[in-house]
Design a protein that fits this description.
Elements: E1 9-16, H1 22-34, H2 40-61, E2 69-77, E3 80-87, H3 102-107, H4 115-122, E4 125-128, E5 136-143
Antiparallel strand pairs: 1-2, 2-3, 3-5, 4-5
Amino acid sequence: MNPDLIQNIDKEIVIKSKTENLSSVRDFIHDCCNSNGIASSAIDDVVIAVDEACTNVIKHAYKFMPDGDIKVRLRISGKKLSIDIIDYGNIFNPDALKEPNMNEYFKMKKVGGLGVHLMKTLMDEVRFEPVPGKYNKVVLSKNIA
């Protein structure tokens, strides 16, 4: 990454809660990061984490109802990349989420359920900021320098 290429940016995209719209979010994240000189390995991590977060919104907050709004806001400030993902679906309680026991997970041949774990692995910080009765918000952050 060339730090001279990075500019402060603040952009957003709003999609409807359909899985076919995830490619638009992935392209949005990739294009914003790539045009600002962020290393491709960091871009890949961010794209996967945002895709997981949006997939969770579609599956859990909106229960696959296709007309919900998902707002994805990308900000780059200095050496930090932050992405807010906001939805207006069912409220998510992050305290109810348990850390997966990976040995048990593989032993039981489970499928799915690792989205938050993956986000936390790929990003430097994952914060859940739900506002009950209004919206859910997850903030994904990564140092890019």
